[in-house]
Specification:
By secondary structure, the chain is mostly helical. The chain has a domain of 47 residues: Arc Repressor Mutant, subunit A, CATH 1.10.10. Helix content is 61%, strand content 0%. α3 crosses α5 and α4 crosses α5. It is elongated and about 35 Å long. The two termini are 25 Å apart.
C-alpha cells in the first residue's frame, strides 16, 4: 500500500474507493504541492521546517497546504475546484 493510499479522505469519502479517487486527483497537484503535503503528513515536518527546506516562508507553506487540501477535497467530492493551484498542473 502506498503512502497516498493511506492518506485520510476528506469529509464523507472513505475506503478503497476514496484512495483510488485521491490517487487520480493527486497527479493534478503540482510537484511542489505534492512534496509539501508529503513532507507535512508523512514526514511529520512542521510548516517552518518545510519552508526552510524549500526556501519558503512558514505562512506561504501554510497557504499552499490549505489550498492543496481544498483542491483535493473539491475534486474528490466531484465539484469543480474554486481556484487553480499555484504552479498548477
Amino acid at each position: 500500500m502506498t503512502m497516498l493510499a493511506q492518506a485520510p479522505a476528506p469529509d464523507n469519502i472513505t475506503g478503497p474507493a476514496a484512495a483510488a479517487v485521491l490517487a487520480v486527483h493527486w497527479t493534478e497537484l503540482a510537484a511542489r504541492e505534492q512534496r509539501i503535503l508529503l513532507l507535512r503528513y508523512y514526514g511529520n515536518l512542521a510548516q517552518a521546517q518545510i519552508g526552510e527546506q524549500l526556501g519558503l516562508s512558514q505562512m506561504h507553506v501554510s497557504r499552499l497546504i490549505s489550498q492543496s487540501l481544498a483542491y483535493l477535497r473539491d475534486r474528490m467530492l466531484g465539484s469543480e475546484p474554486q481556484r487553480t493551484l499555484i504552479g498548477g498542473p
